[in-house]
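Q: What changes when (2S,3S)-3-hydroxy-2-methylbutanoyl-COA is included in the input?
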Amino acid sequence: MSDLVQLSQDNDVAVITINNPPVNALSPGVPEAIAEAIEHVQQDASVRAAVVIGGGRTFVAGADIKEFGKITSGQHTRGAPLLPAVLLKIEDCSKPVVMAIHGTAFGGGMELAMSGHYRVAAPSAQLGQPEVKLGIIPGAAGTQRLPRLAGVAKAVEMCAGGNPISAKEARELGIVDRLVEGDLRAGAVAFAREVAGKPAPKTRERTGKLGTPEQNAPILAAAREQARKKQRGLMAPLAAIEAVEAAARLPFELGCELERRLFTGCLFSDQSKALIHVFFGEREVAKVPDVPKETPILPVNQVGVVGAGTMGGGIAMVFANAGIPVLLREVDQAALDRGLANIQKNYAGSVKRGRFTQEFVDERLKRIQPTLSFAGFAEVDMVVEAVFEGMALKKEVFAELDRVCKPSAILASNTSTLSIDEIASATKRPQSVIGTHFFSPANVMRLLEIVRGKATGKEVIATAMQLAKKLGKVGVLVGNCRGFVGNRMFHPYRREAQFLVEEGASVEAVDAALTDFGMAMGPLATGDLAGLDVGWRIRKEYRHLEKPGVRQPLAEDRLCEMGRFGQKTGAGWYKYDENRRAVPDPEVAELVRKAAAAAGIAQRQIPAEEILDRCIYALVNEGARILEEGYALRAVDIDIIYLNGYGFPAYRGGPMWYADTVGLKQVLERIREFQQQHGELWAPAPLLVRLAEQGAHFDGFIREPGGKP
Ligand code: T1G
Ligand code: NAD
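A: The predicted holo structure follows.
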């Protein structure tokens, strides 16, 4: 047997334990060793049944995703995959094989489980086919065995949606035969002993739940419509539906062949490469090279939030939802009441949508303690400040916090653009000051941009990175430059969108070019959502820094002067009806046309391709500067920021990965074209030029030591 798979015996029951930490992935050597163990079970007369169980914290979390990048399409089509054959071997074993599931049975792990004759599970176990989240579909008969165990409707939901189900639900569906409280191994061996000697039911022969094509047609149609709406632009969910449909139409072997063809088509797609980049990227960003894993973590058991506006209220909910009591401070009762009313309204919406129960909400609301003073702030472990975006006010608040908070408390600011170093200079403890930049709405958006000041201590950084996970956020560490990473890149992106409108494109055409590309929302509509006044306030704060003679967008200041702040005032770039639906507004088109004429900007037809390239490449060019200057640790950090904070489509991998996919040489050529046409705002970033000339990529670019964050 191998180190990866151990075989032991409990009297007449063989126990096959898979040991490939951290998640028992089906790495090379594991399927082979399982097959060897099953052969032993088959041959050894003293064995009447077998149990397959995962060592450590989980059953099998799937195929080894790290291996995918190593497979070439030639290799793939030539070699018959090993796993499906191993699963058939298990299924054809004449002695019952019981799968004992704890932790996660995901992807190939779920397929392994379904190849067994019986499944028992710990109540806390999770089962699922998350492959579509990697841009692929199950590739080892998952789309053929799952509908046989759970029916077509559930199989479509699990394979096209990719979300796991609980062991309890799997029991109710008949996927799992028994839930085992306590010692899973003992419970599984006992179960195996009960079924030993009885016929071993083969999942592939169970056709009772497959239904007829007529019965399945409406289910499949609804699933396709849902996939097109909720997973816009993704090819894998539709492929998964087609494969499950085949299970009810074709014999098992032919269904598997079709699944295989669809799997191969997905595996070698750009979408899958991008989504696998994202999978590992979300884990990579948690690692900060100069903050070792063993850096002490400070306790965060109680927090204060200063300011209960748009952000402060949402941030208070995030901490309360994570079980951390919050002191929520405001300047006056009216502002406090407004903040609390917003919080209650948001929670009521979550109850209405069935996300939370009323009991859950009541619990959370109890954890949010409103206050008009700093009483109690001496006890908190951390404070997040979310007052108006003004340096003077923030320094005043931090000076006060420095006075009232205990020495070990972390002082964090939710500023979206201001210097963390300057804010920290208002305190005697700059090592305890950090930026925690949540995104609106804070209780929904997954991104937390963690801003490191030049004095911020490693313990404070390590604590903030770990806290992000506890709060259900994706924490990304960035350096302290203006707008940090996300907003700094967002500025030229939105600048180009506004310039394109001034040059003749319609507001809705600009937004449509980006949403067709996969962005969750267009750049102009996003401005309306966040509030055009936020940017206006910042532009006024930095007007003195604008370089003379450099073109600046014309319209947004005028819209704000007219009180058109966006959704919050019912009008911005668009007008909004009573259901907050955006309606193009001819008044805006006229305003822009006049401003452009006054500025002597010629009008022209602008193709969608140019709109897209100018907006996306503006992101990429600024991203390259940020990478070179060291304000982001890796290109993938930028990608993860844009996926989780700015609605960039995951199946394109993020702006830097997308540029690598297009090819940096081609991106550079296009940027140089824009530089010709539109001037020095389009000067290509030196790093982009260098990498393009070297035929290299952003992905994997490591900055020389001595960088910033
Ligand atoms: N392959 C390789 N490495 C994996 C892995 C996998 N399947 N799953 C996790 N890791 C690594 C991960 O990168 C990290 O590494 C460490 O394990 C801990 O993971 C044939 C083709 C199981 C819920 O999509 O969802 O099967 O950063 O930090 O938060 O049809 O990992 O420490 O170096 O995420 O406790 C389908 C993917 C594959 C499941 C645990 N399976 N994994 O979460 O730990 S495709 C999946 C997860 C497939 C078949 C097809 C989660 C988890 P490092 P972690 P966690
Ligand atoms: P907001 O105007 O909605 O709320 C600010 C709140 O701070 C107001 O309720 C005000 O009464 C309160 N306040 C002012 N001075 C105070 C003091 N001394 N003590 C206590 N409360 C005080 O603003 P917002 O949109 O929530 O922005 C807050 C911060 O978050 C800003 O720094 C902003 O840049 C940042 N931010 C905003 C967004 C966004 O999309 N709105 C996103 C990320 C970060």
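Observations recorded in class: The chain has a mean pLDDT of 95.
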